[in-house]
Amino acid sequence: MQTEKMAALGGLVAGIAHEINTPIGIGVTAASLLAEKTAALSDYFQRGTMKRSELEKFLDVAQQSSRLTLANLNRAAELIQSFKQVAVDQFSESQRMFNLNAYLQEILLQLSPKLGLTKHTIEVHGDRHLSLNSYPGAFSQIVTNLVMNSLLHAYAPDDRGHITLTLSQTEEQVILEYADDGQGIPPENLSKIFEPFFTTKRGQGGSGLGLHIVYNLVTQKLDGTIQCESQPFEGTRFVIRLPKT
Q1: Full-prediction pTM beyond 0.85?
Q2: Tens of pLDDT along 221-242?
Q3: CA gap 244, 171 in Å, rounded
């Protein structure tokens, strides 16, 4: 399990580095432009040749550059905070109260570099205010392994897949439904998917441990249940039920 956590953290670091590069790059470009225009305006001022039109242009550039820099620095800060929380949760064994919808969005953000290499879309539906006092690190590993399982098994390289995660609740349970619209699972394999080392992709990236880890985390760590429904060419659906207390 520790090896799996380290691998997950490695993916997390790669994901945040990829994601944070864009806002930092935009911020650097905007700041560089502002520095260049400031130097030019200072030169005009020192020589006594500054015109009103040049000052107006500078103020316009300064306003746009400042707004762009601030927005992208805030975005970078949000990414770093998201990374810190998910990374800490993956190595923490402690419980805490967390908003499921918001946490799912954070997990998917970390997976965006891998999802970005595909043509698939992924959406979160359901109660935005649903919270759970549980183990967010385990929850993160469950969702990550389900998504990676779909990417590896459900679709051909050029497919345009659609994955949904739907949150709901009963009086005593929180329910997460995970569904893809991929090629499905043959009936003869459906009863084996949670067995350790069972994979149809050995040598192609499949270890046979992803869904086994999901099963153990759901049933042992989170004291819940997980069911899988699938038909060939009709997609796969996992239903996870977790106790509220």
Answers
A1: no
A2: 899 999 999 999 899 999 999 9
A3: 8
